[in-house]
Structures are given as structure tokens and as C-alpha cells.
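Why do we care about 3D structure at all? Because function follows from shape, and shape follows, mostly, from sequence. That is the central idea of this module. The next example makes it concrete: a single protein chain, its amino acid sequence, and then its structure expressed as C-alpha cells.
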Amino acid sequence: MLPLHIEKALTGVELCFTRVSEALVSGEPLALEAASAVMRQATLDLSALLQRLPPPDLKHPNLKLRLKRLSEGMATQRQSLLRRTVLIERGLNVIIPTARTATQAGTTYANLGKSGGSIKYAVTR
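And the structure:
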């Protein structure tokens, strides 16, 4: 059995992890942002706690197993966020296509005036 303070911190991060997963599934950006911020803080607190633990507590098999599960779960969440980002960017590109460069565009403002050459300014003194 893990010491109570370690158990409490781990359970807190696991709860936050679950909330982030639920927010990811719901697709609500504000809920995802809020849940992610809370999970980030809980993870930082757990990390600070783990850095202060004596070596025997760090070697506890249950601690290692739960940390490994959290680590793998967070990697999966990160991949899901990356996939969602790509889907959103593709959707936005359909709705609002990116501007074509002058070489890709058929008629540009440069083609409307004199072809070739440069614009010259008259300098008067």
C-alpha cells in the first residue's frame, strides 16, 4: 500500500486525467482547456512530491505501475489532440482557403499595370 500523501496525489492526477479524456471526447474547447490546466497543476504537484520522496518509496511497484499507466495515457491524449488539431485545420482550410501566392494566382495586382519593370519614383528637390 502506498503512503496516504502519495495515494492522494496520484488519485488526484488520475481524476484530472479522466476529466481531460472526457473533455476530449466531448469536443468542448473551454472544458478541455480548463481540465488540462487543472491536470497540469496536479501533475506538477505530484512531480514535486515525487522529487522529495525517499528512495524506498520511489521503488514501490504500485507507484511505478500507476505512473506508467498515466504516462501512457497522457501520450495517447497527446496523439488525440494532435489528430483533432489536424482535423480542425483541414476543416478551416475548406471553409477559409489559404491565400495563394502571387505565382499561383492567375491574375494579380502586378499583372494589371505595366508588365515587367519596376516602379520608379521621381525625386524632386
